[in-house]
Amino acid sequence: MLQNFAAIDIGTNTLRLLIAYVQDSRLVRVCTCRESARLGSGIADTGVLNAEGINNAIGTLDSFAQIINSFDVKSIRAVGTHALRTAANTAEFINLAAQKTGINIEVISGEEEADLTLKGAVTASPSLHSPYAVVDIGGGSTEWIYMTDSISQMSIPIGAVELYDKFFASSQSMSLAIERAREYAITLFKKTIPAISGGRIQLMATGGTATTLAAMDIQLEAYDPDKVQGHTISARNIEQTINTLSTMNTDQRAEIKGLEKDRVDIIIPGALILSSLMQRISAASVVVSDFGMLEAIIFELVNVKSHIDFV
Prior knowledge:
alpha/beta; six-stranded mixed beta sheet; 11 strands; globular
């Protein structure tokens, strides 16, 4: 009998739930949910999880617990990433979550986050061949994995929420905010990601920024993971998107097909991160993956390998 497993990602911006089972070494989704809590909003300045974000996150986790209880789930793993790695009040939040929702949260390292991201992303993309890179742009950090005959991976302290807080939240000039944010991102990537010799490489992106840009590029009325999976976006289209969004206010952006309302403020910072990274590695286009860390967690819970052999 096939058994369901549950994985939860508590991110800086978004909390995500995946309930799935594995059949013939392939993952089958049963239920997916995601809610923006902005748990890590302002953390770069305050060093703590904000009160509103905590309340939102606890409420979301409580709803996740109810959903999980409605399915026959064998086991669950809930992981926290950048915001919970850095906040001074993480322990208090984890204790509160356990008391209020019964969900036990494990804070994982940036290295494990990158490893899970790689495993999940390439599961649905068997056509990738070395050399290639996978990037996951989150709210507070960006996971970078470069695969050749060996693997190089790191967690870079830049994310869509963090960049918004730093350059956009209090700026009166969108063009100036974009200029400064881009300069900041490019400088950081030059310091952290070595120049890649031999020209362009395959680049795959996962996470909310990438999937949102794909949904916008396709102009989806409602998010469809099957249509987003494997969609290719050119660097030129990403730049055009940034330029177009920069001329709109938040109400106008909210009308764009594929752009969810809880991302109207952070989509430009997220797109700038992706664009700056693509500039750093001379990538003309990026392939978007709807698979990522949650899918890898499910495979680990099931304790089987996917149809991809990982390094």
